[in-house]
Queue: 3 jobs
Job 1
Amino acid sequence: MKIFAVLGDPISHSLSPVMQNTALNALGLDAQYLSFRVAKENLRYAVLGAQAMGFSGLNLTIPLKEIALKIVIPDDLARAIGAVNTISFGGDAKEEIKGYNTDSFGALMALERTGIKIEDSRALIVGAGGASRAIAYILSLRGAKVSIANRSQARAVELANRVGGHGFGLDDLGKLVPRADILINATSVGMKEGDPRLIDQSWLRPGQIVFDTIYNRRTELLEDAFRAKAVAIDGVTMLVYQGAKALEIWTGLKAPVDVMERAVRGALEEREKAKICLNKDQLKEQ
Ligand code: NAP
């Protein structure tokens, strides 16, 4: 049996196991995809241990993607982005441990599915962390004019310099958002109910592409985008395509993306129902 896993800290929220196990099953492979909570300082041991135990591949999530560069041999894309989210093992403990970045492909597919022409478009990315790095790099490579706005402006400027764009603070969003053809939220703001709005609905316009990388819930930004008649894209497509690319790297087989997307959306619906049940039970107790 082939074993795959996702490592991160925290990890219990990850939808990769349900998505990848459904895909492995659909491909008829004798394989299991697991998840492990691994702290940053233990990543080296975890990766070497997985190799020693004959694992076939790993995914990495927060906060391990950047530190992994020091542990694996990254391909050119992962090195240029500065983050690894997929690891492949050759099957022999003496073989090289290779690292890839498939987040950039996932984000690109999410945007391309709308039919938008990326070349020469004005793309505004809010956030300057790992996800933003992958998206900024690939959009810039595809010829978009990239601007980055971040809470810590210095980080936005540093990333913008790497990709040939412009960096801003969040105070500039009011003038930047209306001018953007593509607006991307690559911050963690919106992951939790009650998070503040970074973007005012009045700054959005019909036809604008609004892509929120968050996939665990329907965010206020996406609700506002619907109301403004913008084209709203959630983070599920990015999640599915980054996972599909990883699966293809590991198995050499074409990933069943539709099956994967249905598995993720189904799991999200189940979570939503569980939350409603929990709320009802809490009400009964009061
Ligand atoms: P990260 O490296 O920790 O970066 C977090 C970013 O959010 C930073 O730019 C940070 O700004 C900003 N931020 C955090 N709290 C904020 C606040 N209260 N106000 C304003 N900005 C704030 O995380 P990441 O890995 O890039 O992930 C970012 C988002 O991308 C998450 O929502 C994650 O779910 C999503 N993501 C989605 C996929 C997918 O497949 N759909 C894949 C990867 C990531 P500072 O620099 O100022 O701290």
Job 2
Amino acid sequence: MALFRKKPRTEEPIPNHIAIIMDGNGRWAKKRGLPRTAGHKVGAEAFRTIANYAKSIGLHYLTVYAFSTENWKRSTDEVETIMGLLEKYLRELIRDMDKNRVRFCFFGDLSRLSPELQQEARETAERSARYTGVQVNFCLNYGGRDEILRAAKQFAADCASGKARPEELTEAGFSDLLYSAGVPDPDLIIRPSGEIRISNFLLWQSAYSEYYFTDTLWPDFGPRDLDAAIHAYNRRSRRFGGVK
Ligand code: IPE
Ligand code: IPE
Ligand code: MG
């Protein structure tokens, strides 16, 4: 049993929940004269490295945005390559599960994915549920608006069937209808690639999250970049509407 939490190089406290928009794969490839899909391959490796690092520093929750509800707009070739990479990645995760010991959850509407991918995601989540280290929430066909709409429909259905009453709905009760039910809100949201926008990520959960933007493209993002983000986070003053 680990009796201490390994700190990043900066020896600083680790936030409880970090979320990352894994962006910039296409531009990384373009800069090298490679097809966009090459960037997705290296991006998948960057995720593997960051997930392992997150575990080693004792992070409790890591949420990553891998494919949005809007990413279907891309060419069939690109979407198929991303889906193929995800399948390969999940197969490897299942194979190496006892070595990595990372708990996986999936946020998003998985019903639009291939039956194979859905099955792998289910198996990954079920078989990794017993691990107690870092929890990785993998956002796949995820959209913040889609998530809120789905919760609203669920609540309306519960009201119609007499299971719930509109006047009794609370923020906590609504949170429990989201994909992220039971997961604390992210403390820090990181977006690499130089874009300064949220692109439909964790709209409800990010109400009081701290943001960190960097020009580094996701395939180049490594443990030292995560340390830098944590360092910046630890210098913020979070007030949640109060006075400090
Ligand atoms: C992020 O990288 C991966 C996905 C959205 C699937 P991009 O593919 O968006 O890379 P850029 O933003 O075009 O560089
Ligand atoms: C956000 O990146 C989605 C993921 C990283 C999975 P996008 O590349 O899709 O976002 P926009 O189009 O630049 O806003
Ligand atoms: Mg992008």
Job 3
Amino acid sequence: MRKKIVAGNWKCNTNLKEGIALASEVEKLYTQSGVKDVLTIVSPPFVHLTEVAKVLKNVKLSAQNCAAEPKGAFTGEVSAEMVKSTGAEFCIIGHSERREYYGDTNSILAKKVKLAMANGLTPIFCIGEVLAERESGKLFDVIKTQLQDGIFFLSAEEFGKVIIAYEPVWAIGTGVVATPAQAQEMHKFIREQISLKYGKSVADSTSILYGGSCKASNAKELFANPDVDGGLIGGAALKAEEFLGIITAF
Ligand code: PEP
């Protein structure tokens, strides 16, 4: 059985004090809720990781990115090994904002995936099409290429540890959410691609998260789809109560 997962991506929000307070509140509400079968993850900015790790027990910790090089003269970069040493277990890789604003190509992302895995981090690998690609009917080709070039170099055993997040770029931070049918159609396609590459059993056990303007009020209908295993949450992860509403929406 694949896992249900809700992961919050805080992006470039919260100072350290606010980040610790938010993580503490998420930990408290999640623990009080008694929910046991939803893997819950928060992804604060890099500089918060060590301190946030101290206030988490049941909620897991992720970084939002890692360097494409293992170490060395790469000013401002944070390596996968550094991320792992904070206590984080997960690492978001390939978020559309990294692809769009920081030049993270599929081949750079493949290097990040490799380093994350080598350091014992579970990649939360993001894929998604922009609006023009959807409207011109290229969406399935785009997703296929992102998978093939960014992560399908892994062995079946390695891929079995990965989490995929489908995030249509036109839905991220826009308030425009994919319809449950649009989400299901793409998640099913992604699972088929995984099955073609790695076989049915790996495909059936891979968690595929939906991301893009998901909130407590629309999570239930999205998560009700057979191939939607949870969510990668941006804005709605910045309020602990709202985030809990998503965790309890299955
Ligand atoms: C995201 O950035 O991963 C995301 C899904 O953002 P939002 O929920 O704000 O659309």
